[in-house]
Design brief:
Strand order of the largest sheet of chain B: 2-1-5-3-4
Radius of gyration of chain A: 27 Å
Structural class of chain B: alpha+beta
Shape of chain A: globular
Largest sheet of chain A: 7 strands, mixed
Shape of chain B: globular
Number of helices of chain B: 5
Oligomer: heterodimer
Order of helices and strands of chain B: EEHEEEHHHH
Number of strands of chain B: 5
Helix content of chain B: 25-40%
Strand content of chain B: 15-25%
Largest interface: A-B, 57 and 54 residues
Mean pLDDT of chain A: 97
Number of helices of chain A: 20
Chain lengths: 787, 155
């Protein structure tokens, strides 16, 4: 009988008691003895020279401990913020990589760019003094979007001619153009992937502390990857060795990518805490978050798909402009290149794919990975143009997809864009989704809507993603400046309870439960006797953190390897206790047995023996039972599936109602189906948000228009329906748990499904020119009434 | 500075505050009740929702001084030791939370709904929670939890 707390069980989460009782420990809940508060002086201008920054009045105000500017950081040899990935242009030149000072030096380049920091006894005093810092700005023309960047209205960085960061390509353009020229049908589609703001409900917080006795610096921060922050901040910005720098990311209130990156405030509070010999806390307010948290997406694309007379895809050509913002955030250059173009084969056998990506600097907040990071953008291109092709050639969109799917017996499948897919069954999830939404019943529902004066549309999105980031050698060859393995440590205590340390970080994903289920299953220990620890570089050997749906596929694999080692050693101890050979020992349900005998010893007894080694094979083993594993994956994992959205539009108001949304996903094996469903729900909500509600708006000059929740439309409970989610299992063949990752699927698949439904409904009303996201009532109404 | 007194989770408390001190800051900074969270500065997110004299209130939108003499309840006052309140239990049972940051505000808002409407429909819940943002769950499981929690509270 399967365990009720093991792999596959919908175990209720171990972490929830503290969260539902208000006992979570988020960074802003922490306070250090003698703590001071930081407030930043931020540019109200998109682009300006700093003629002078006069801090004298602020420095004399009540409670002010210190005021620092960019000059002070430069004098102290504090370096700028590093970029973690180098992309090369098609001519072989490296990307333009301008300095990103933690406090602006000479110039500010986006609204919110930090000019100075005030440290004071209270937050109120710090804010009041920040108001008193006198900055003389020489306002310059600002660049609010990529068109302005290309037009060269101003120069964001002197070293970036025409504001271009890189001009990158994948594939052979001449070959693609020839194939498109020979195709029976060519579909061309311009697409905008709207700029988004991640908006975890917990704003960013950083507390710097310095121990004068030991010389140890500590940073408490809202991060998805504390070791990465320690590496980036310690080695590149502040020049602090790892043994004197501790980074703690306690309970973190959502990340969605934007808490991956190393931010200026982290380095400043860490540096300044040692300078003023006091702890310093900085808490972002929401307004500050809108103008400093890295944004996501912001692509403009023209795609062309060539098909033969039977509807087989021949060639896909994609030309994309990607907005980098004012500076290169930690992983920004990789998002529109290696995390995007390498997914452009989708679920299809398209033999030729070409992508040209041009990245631009603008006077806007840096853009980096947001839930899905490159893969939602790729899915949006493929699934919108495939749907458009089906409409143009008059084929059922499901049938056209199925005709071009990589078949289940074709794996491993080498795509023309570098990735080798490991496993999948795309027809399976397509059929599952069609059944779930009652696809056959759509014409009747559409007719009923029409009778009620409404427009109804249905849209598919058959997505694939590359998760389990990543084989270090592969990403290293593509320009990553880090390895992307994961680390697990399993400490079995003398009485048989277990503490596991993981280098991944949970900020909502439920690792404390999922990883504990794997341990309970493997060691036969009740889940309540297992604790999973994350988020502190002093406790955890190492780790690359949580993003890219990697935690279980990479971190869980490290755990499985560490458990293999625990089991191997425990078997030897058990063999000694049972006076048998360890090769004869079997381990199941927490009991070691010898086949064909009635000998048995419990896991707890083995643990006790390991720590009280009176009767122990000392000549063969060391005492103790604690093992560690680093796992570097052999390949990416490839979750895939099909989502279908059904919408109803009120033509009188342009309001789009999401009538139904179904998801059929293949995540490989599933450890906790309840948690997986929750991850899919959340991803869908963000994808639907992108399609119908959300959009970060800058004006032409780079002034941020959507600077609060009053202006930026977050999905609310009454904007969304319930979702139907189901899964198919095609195990990953190359990791020990057979898992693929589930965290981003919804955000990747949903935008195309919703927009295919919206544009389909509008097409039925005679509007053939597709609108861009978000499909707001005014945009929909305007398009319907222009026709 | 002026003094303010109120009952918080059944306990009489008082403190010295500035006139501009928000109730949420009084709870978090003065009373160390950090279960009430701050997620925005425009009264949109609802992470700071508490009860004042039995009504759900966003504590970032009320001055501490305005709560003089009031009966205040926060998330910390809901459970009876290790025994969760039915709404807390429903959130746990239905996986109505992920990162947990919006959760205290959601639960406080939900218990206020349940007092008015013992058997809310899905639509009632979605409408009521319009003032509470969650970025993790897509609301699906929160809605299930609130419906179940309301029934359990009124059973």
């Amino acid at each position: 009988m399967p365990r009720d707390d093991g792999i596959g069980a919908a175990v209720r989460r171990k972490e929830d008691f503290r969260f539902v009782t208000g006992q979570g420990s988020y960074t802003d809940d922490l306070n250090r003895s003698g703590q001071t508060y930081a407030a930043f002086v931020r540019s109200p201008h998109a682009h300006a020279t700093l003629n002078s920054v006069d801090t004298s009045a602020a420095a004399g105000m009540d409670g002010v401990v210190a005021v620092f500017t960019g000059h002070d950081l430069a004098d102290a040899e504090v370096n700028g913020l590093p970029c973690g990935w180098q992309v090369h242009s098609k001519d072989g030149e490296p990307m333009v990589e301008p300095a990103h000072p933690a406090l602006a030096q000479g110039k500010v380049r986006h609204v919110g760019d930090a000019v100075a920091v005030v440290i004071a006894e209270t937050l109120t005093q710090a804010r009041a003094a920040a108001e008193a810092v006198d900055v003389d700005y020489g306002v310059l023309p600002g660049i609010g979007n990529m068109s302005a960047a290309k037009a060269g209205k101003a120069q964001v960085h002197e070293e970036a001619a025409n504001n271009q960061c890189y001009d990158w390509e994948l594939g052979d353009e001449a070959e693609i153009d020839a194939a498109l020229a020979g195709a029976a049908h060519v579909v061309e589609l311009p697409l905008v992937n709207n700029r988004l703001i991640a908006n975890p409900i917990e704003p960013r917080v950083a507390i710097g502390d310095f121990d004068t006795a030991t010389g140890e610096h500590t940073l408490y921060t809202t991060s998805q990857n504390p070791h990465v922050i320690r590496l980036l901040m310690g080695a590149f910005v502040l020049g602090l060795p790892e043994h004197k720098l501790r980074v703690v990311a306690p309970d973190v209130g959502g990340g969605f990518g934007t808490k991956i990156f190393h931010y200026a405030e982290e380095a400043i509070v860490t540096w300044a805490a040692a300078k003023v010999r006091r702890p310093i806390k900085w808490t972002s307010d929401r307004s500050e978050a809108f103008m400093t948290d890295a944004h996501g997406r912001d692509h403009e694309t023209v795609a062309k798909l060539g098909l033969d007379a039977d509807g087989k895809f021949l060639a896909l050509k994609v030309e994309t402009d990607a907005n980098m913002g004012a500076y290169l955030s930690t992983f920004a250059p990789a998002v529109p290149t290696y995390l995007y173009a390498t997914l452009l084969a989708g679920q299809y056998t398209t033999p030729l794919v070409y992508a040209n990506v041009r990245a631009w600097f603008t006077n806007t907040v840096p853009v980096d990975a947001y839930r899905g990071a490159g893969r939602p953008e790729a899915t949006y291109v493929i699934e919108r143009i495939v749907e458009e092709a089906a409409r143009q050639i008059g084929m059922d969109p499901g049938d056209l997809r199925a005709k071009n799917f990589v078949s289940p017996d074709a794996f491993p499948y080498q795509t023309p864009v570098a990735l080798e897919y490991d496993s999948g069954n795309y027809a399976g999830t397509l059929e599952m989704a069609k059944t779930a939404i009652d696809y056959a019943g759509f014409p009747a529902r559409q007719a009923a809507s029409k009778a009620a004066g409404k427009l109804r549309g249905i849209g598919f999105s058959a997505y694939i993603e590359a998760c389990g980031i990543a084989p270090s050698a592969v990403v290293g060859s593509l320009g990553a400046r880090a390895g992307l393995y994961e680390v697990a440590n399993v400490r079995v205590h003398p009485t048989g309870s277990v503490t596991m340390h993981t280098g991944t970080h949970s900020h909502g994903q439920g690792h404390e439960t999922t990883f504990a289920q794997v341990i309970a299953e493997r060691l036969g220990v009740p889940i309540e006797n297992v604790d999973v620890v994350h988020g502190d570089t002093n406790n955890i050997p190492f780790g690359m953190g949580t993003y890219g749906s990697r935690s279980l596929a990479v971190g869980g694999s490290a755990l499985a390897k560490a458990l293999d080692k625990v089991e191997a050693k425990a078997k030897k101890i058990a063999a000694h206790l049972m006076e048998a050979s360890d090769t004869d020992v079997e381990f199941k349900d927490g009991q070691f047995t010898i086949a064909g005998t009635d000998k048995s010893v419990a896991f707890g007894d083995v643990a006790l023996t390991a720590y009280v080694p009176h009767n122990f094979p000392h000549d063969e083993l060391e005492p103790g039972l604690e093992e560690q594993a680093f796992y570097d994956p052999a390949n990416f994992t490839f979750p895939a599936g099909c989502h279908i959205a059904e919408v109803e539009i009120d033509p009188d108001t342009g309001t789009v109602t999401l009538a139904n949304f179904v998801a059929a996903d293949d995540f490989g094996n599933i450890v906790n189906p309840m948690i997986v469903e929750g991850q899919v729900h959340g991803g869908i909500a963000q994808g639907v948000g992108q399609a119908l509600l959300e959009g970060c708006v800058y004006d032409e000059d780079g002034q941020l228009v959507t600077g609060s929740y009053m202006d930026y439309a977050m999905p609310r409970a009454d904007n969304l329906p319930n979702f139907t989610v189901d899964t198919q299992v095609t195990p990953c063949p190359h990791n020990p748990l057979g898992v693929k990752g589930c965290g981003e699927a919804g955000a990747i698949a949903a935008p195309a499904a919703v927009m295919n439904a919206v544009t389909g409904a509008m097409r039925a009303a005679g509007v053939t020119k597709p609108i861009d996201m978000p499909a707001t009532p005014s945009k929909v109404w305007t398009a319907l009434n222009a026709s | 500075m002026s003094s303010v007194s109120m009952t918080i989770n059944g306990k009489q408390v008082s403190g010295e505050v500035e006139g501009r001190t928000l109730l949420v800051d009084f709870l978090r900074e003065h009373q160390r009740l950090t279960g009430t969270h701050v997620g925005c500065d425009t009264t949109q997110c609802g992470a700071c929702t508490i009860h004042v004299n039995g009504e759900a209130v966003k504590s970032c939108t009320m001055l501490a001084a305005q709560a003089e003499g009031a009966d205040v309840s926060t998330i910390e006052g809901l459970a009876d030791g290790d025994n969760l309140h039915p709404m807390q239990e429903a959130f746990r049972e239905h996986h109505g939370l992920q990162c947990g940051f919006c959760t205290p505000g959601m639960i406080m808002s939900a218990t206020a709904l349940a007092k008015r409407n013992p058997n809310p429909s899905e639509s009632d819940v979605r409408h009521w929670l319009e003032g509470n943002l969650c970025r993790c769950t897509g609301y699906h499981n929160i809605v299930k939890a609130v419906m179940a929690g309301a029934r359990a509270m009124n059973a």
